[in-house]
Specification:
With 249 residues, the chain is an alpha/beta fold. It is built from nine helices and seven strands, in the order ααααβββαβαβαβαβα. α6 links the parallel β4 and β5. This is DUF218 domain-containing protein. Pfam families: DUF218 (PF02698).
Length: 249
């Protein structure tokens, strides 16, 4: 019963509410003009499909499986890419926090440092006027986790993945580091690896922050619309477009 309630509830909030309204307009138009009704029906179905976890998970999973996480790593530095931050929000030892993806990446890097003793280079700047500087926040949090200052490098100017790669390459060259282990979200790894390759670096990909489970199943909840699922679909499409743009350059 609880799953039925959850499914019905998904049509009370956006995007489910908008899909329901559009479906009603399709029925209303169908009696008056078939061609506009068919066009609106197609748009409605596309909106519905893109807002389901079934479609979102399929799209994001195909990206996440392109680079398996290695069992062992060999390198001389752990490079972590940012993924957003807030400014002025309270933290244990200061202000500003990394957003979910960036925090997951940082946690993975800290655990890799504990296992390997390799230094960490965090790459990410202040992307927007009201967002936090990702690398500066990451440095404070890594110090709070007990990682020595001499094992932390930061690149706090980059605004996108292309700049992540370009500015990181400069810092690695200055410190004579040549074997980076690249840590970023699994869905982001295909595009990030391409950008670092174009910047002249051969990286060892270490994907983390997975959004889809290894084995996908289909059940009613996967077919209910949600804003979160639509965000997953949009994230996957953005990465596909980014990879395509890189390959066409």
């Amino acid at each position: 019963m609880i799953y039925i309630i959850k499914f019905l509830y998904s049509f009370v909030l956006p995007p489910g509410l908008f899909i329901l309204i559009m479906a009603g307009l399709v029925v209303w138009l169908w009696q008056r003009s078939r061609k506009p009704a068919v066009v609106l029906l197609v748009v409605t179905l596309l909106l519905y499909a893109s807002s389901t976890n079934w479609v979102g998970d399929l799209l994001i999973s195909s990206l996440e499986k392109q680079y398996p996480q290695p069992r062992t790593v060999q390198g001389d530095v752990i490079v972590v890419l940012g993924g957003g931050a807030t400014e002025g929000t309270p933290d244990i030892n200061g202000q500003g926090n990394l957003l979910g993806s960036a925090a997951n990446r940082l946690l993975t890097a800290a655990r890799l440092h504990e296992a390997t003793g390799l230094p960490i280079l965090f790459s990410g700047g202040q992307v927007f006027g009201d967002s936090g500087n990702e690398a500066d926040i990451a440095q404070r949090q890594l110090l709070g986790l007990g990682i020595p200052a001499q094992d932390i490098l930061i690149e706090n100017r980059s605004l996108n993945t292309q700049q992540n790669a370009a500015f990181t390459a400069q810092i690695l060259k200055q410190h004579q580091l040549t074997k980076p282990i690249l840590v970023t979200s699994a869905f982001h790894m295909p595009r990030a690896a391409l950008e670092f390759q174009r910047a002249g670096m051969q990286v060892t990909p270490y994907p983390t922050d997975y959004l889809a489970s290894e084995n996908l199943s289909l059940y009613a909840a996967k077919l209910s619309p949600s804003a979160g699922a639509m965000s997953t679909t949009a994230t996957a499409l953005k990465e596909y477009l980014g990879v395509l743009a890189l390959k066409l350059k």
